[in-house]
Amino acid sequence: MKTTNKRTSRRAALAGALLAGLLAAPVAQAQTALGGAPAAAAPTGPWTLQAAIDYALAHNLNVRQSQLSAQNNKAVLTQSKAALLPTLNLNGTQTWNYGRNVNPLTYEYENQTIRSNNFSAQSQLVLFQGFQLRNTIKRNDLDYEASLRDIDKARNDLALNVASAYLQLLLSEELIKSNQSRVASSQAQVARTQILLKAGSVAESNLLDSQSQLASDESNVITATNQRDIARLNLVQLLNLDGSAAATFQVDAPQLADPDAEAPYALDLNQTFETAAGTLPEIKAAELRVQSARRGIDLARGGYYPRLSLFGSVVTGFSSSGTSRVLTGDSTATVLPVYQYDPLNPGGTPTLTNFAVVGPTQANYKFLPSGFFDQLSDNVGRTVQFALTIPVLNGLQVRTGVQRAIINEEANRLRAEQARLTLRQSIEQAYVDARAAQQQYAAAKRQVAALTLSQRNAEIRFNNGLLNGTDYNIAKNNLTFAESNRIQAKYSFIFRRKVLDFYQGKPLTL
Q1: Residue environment code for 448-474, b if the CB has 16+ CB neighbours within 10 A, otherwise e
Q2: Mean pLDDT of residues grouped by 10 in the chain (510 residues)?
Q3: Among 35, 76, 72, residue whose Cα is nearest residue 57
Q4: Would you give the end-to-end CA distance of the chain in angstroms?
Q5: Sign (positive/negative) of CA torsion 165, 169, 170, 172?
Q6: Span of the secretion signal (predicted)?
Q7: What is the distance between the alpha carbons of residues 196 and 206, in angstroms, rounded to a whole number?
Q8: Contact 377, 255 (CB under 8 A)
Q9: Angle subtended at Cα 412 by Cα 406 and Cα 417, rounded to the nearest 5 degrees
Q10: Which residues, at least 6 apart from 183, have a Cβ–Cβ distance to it below 8 Å?
């Protein structure tokens, strides 16, 4: 009994290790041929792998978040392009002044309530700024392109995660079938042992051992069923299915060729790496971010250059105290009397004569409040200004910014090299794992064949009372363990090969 429990624990541990290995596969280095297709509808029948991938790509939240991030970078790029355009702002104010205040138009002190309006239009255009505006555009364009590659990477990761969960579910289903066949065999063995016990051919302990083995096999079925339910839940969560669709979720189980049905798996690792490095979005994104960091250096160095701007404004205003002189249309003549001086008496008083002089007429006028639009027209003022700023000393901010930009460029270059190194290591690891899984399958298949004969021989001896129940259960459990190894090696090889196919740009299909 202890031996049986130990075997069961080993099978559960091995199945768990395979699940962890599949989910920890280098899913980040796979290329997908799927584009931005419309939202896929849930199929009515069993789900194929392609249908599961299409649906996940259309409904997964991580992919949507990557898309929103790219849209944000696009908005930043648009804003940086708009920075090349001149700015234009319109301003208007309305003010009431009470008591003694300065008239904003006549600049005289007046003791009255004055309502005034000021209107202005201001525009500014940067003529030169050390090429910072154009370098900002180029940097933001590279960042936007990198974010598009991030979307592709998120889609690739999701596609391989779905494939991993899909194959894990198929593996669990096959393990259930294998364990159910063991249960059927154990039930038949119990029935035979009961007959032999009644006939007196075997001892009662044989029946107890057979019943113990049956209970162990039934427990294995329950364990495999639980693993199947977990794998199914993982896949449903990746697809982001609602409750009704998840309740009826089933996968299509295609006929998969055995690993030993083909020649030993061989692959040109260098060619696969070059193909993957030229097509995988994460490699391209890393290279784009290196270029973006280099533009960041040029952008920071632009702070050393002078800045030249053109500024223009138009202002006008209105005041309720504003007046204008208006002619009344009347005129007044001036009459001046004529006096005569005695030349012989220069210091005497002049004598009024009977003559008079009529002066020119003077036009009459009065001051009236000026109209609103008349004042706006009369008070227009214009300004044109060139502003030149030459940086001399600003707390070493520009120099520090350049140094930080250089460090950032070096960091991004190292990330790009690390991405390529990780890709090469992932390809090599996936290839070694695929070869090992193929060889393990072949060995497990031969082991199953040998243990099948051994188990049949043990069953015959057990039925004839020549073998005790413990040894018989050990032989049967050895066969179960070998069969489990064979199935798991098969699916491990299939997944690793699909990962390598993805590296080579092939579609992800079963």
Answers
A1: beebeeebeebbeebbeeebebbebbe
A2: 42 38 36 44 80 90 92 95 94 85 70 85 93 94 95 92 92 90 86 82 80 87 92 90 80 85 86 92 95 94 93 90 71 74 75 76 74 86 93 89 95 95 93 92 90 87 78 85 90 91 84
A3: 35
A4: 41
A5: positive
A6: 1-30
A7: 10
A8: no
A9: 125
A10: 214, 217, 218, 221
- Asked if 18 and 490 touch (Cβ cutoff 8 Å), the reply is no
Q: Which tokens in the block code for residue 84? A: 């090349």
> Distance between CA atoms of 301 and 296, rounded to whole angstroms?
9
Q: What does the block give as tokens for 314? A: 């138009």
How many angstroms separate the CA atoms of 149 and 288, rounded? Answer: 9
Query: In the structure encoding, which two tokens stand for residue 370, read together?
Result: 């000026």
317, β-bridge pairs = 118
Residues contacting 87, CB < 8 A, separation 6+ = 122, 123, 124, 125
CB neighbour list of residue 372: distance below 8 Å, 6 or more residues apart: 117, 318
Residue type (1 letter), 297: I
Question: Rg of the chain's alpha carbons, rounded to an integer?
Answer: 47
Q: Are 286 and 415 in contact (CB under 8 A)?
A: yes
Please tell me the distance from the alpha carbon of residue 481 to that of residue 479, in angstroms, as a whole number.
Answer: 5
The encoded tokens of residue 277 equal 């490095």
Contact 74, 144 (CB under 8 A): yes
Q: What six digits make up the tokens of 251?
A: 């996968």
Name the helix (H) or strand (E) containing 409.
helix 397-463
**Cβ atoms 160, 30 nearer than 8 A:** yes
Secondary structure (H, E, C), 37-101 = CCCCCCCCCCECHHHHHHHHHHHCHHHHHHHHHHHHHHHHHHHHHHCCCCEEEEEEEEEEECCEE
pTM, 2 dp: 0.75
Cα–Cα distance for residue pair 112/105, rounded to 1 Å: 14
The residues spanned by each domain of the chain are 2-25+46-83+92-114+122-312+391-503, 323-369
Reported CATH class of domain 2-25+46-83+92-114+122-312+391-503: mainly alpha
Cα 48–51–54 angle (5° rounding)?
Answer: 150
Which DSSP helix (H) or strand (E) runs through 495? helix 469-503
